[in-house]
Amino acid sequence: MNSAKRIQRVAVPLAAATVALAGLLSACGGDKGAEATATTSSTATAAATAAPAAGQAAAVAKTQGWLKIYGGAAPAGTANAVQLQVTSNPSVGKFVSDGSGRSLYRFDKDTATPSVSNCSGQCAVTWPPLTVARDQALYASGVDPQLVGFIERADGTCQITIGGWPVYYFSKDTKPGDLLGQGVGGTWFAVAPNGGKALSK
Question: What sign results for the dihedral spanned by CA atoms 43, 46, 51, 52?
């Protein structure tokens, strides 16, 4: 009788630990549907978001689970990094693009608080999400790293957010600087550095 109770006392915490471990091993560390800014912790002051001096290692500006987010451009030779940068266009002003200059968009039918993507299936084929994987780091140049994070999508991939808004590419943009997705359906807009809409002047 006593041994049965002892086994039960050990089994319950063990089961809880197994569930917790499974959450940690999920693609996005169990942050599914969570607002990026609410599930993160700052690991440096705003001063650390500045680009490092030559020869210095970049300082982590923010972490979210396993993802390290740095301020500035990825140092030369950095492998497998996701880069955000600010681009300017006369028709929309400043907006965010990836490291190759491809435009990034936000969707009005998503939400930022909590951070949720409502674009899946065929929508996500037309508007592929910008994702990050566990073996990557994220660099934000011209974008406040404190506004950057990620959410877990229904398929388990980890989608980058800016100001809580999930960000996407547009499949019809074929080269850096293209903004063919601007205003599509009255719900898709280039994403501004603060996560808002980059709107025509």
Answer: negative
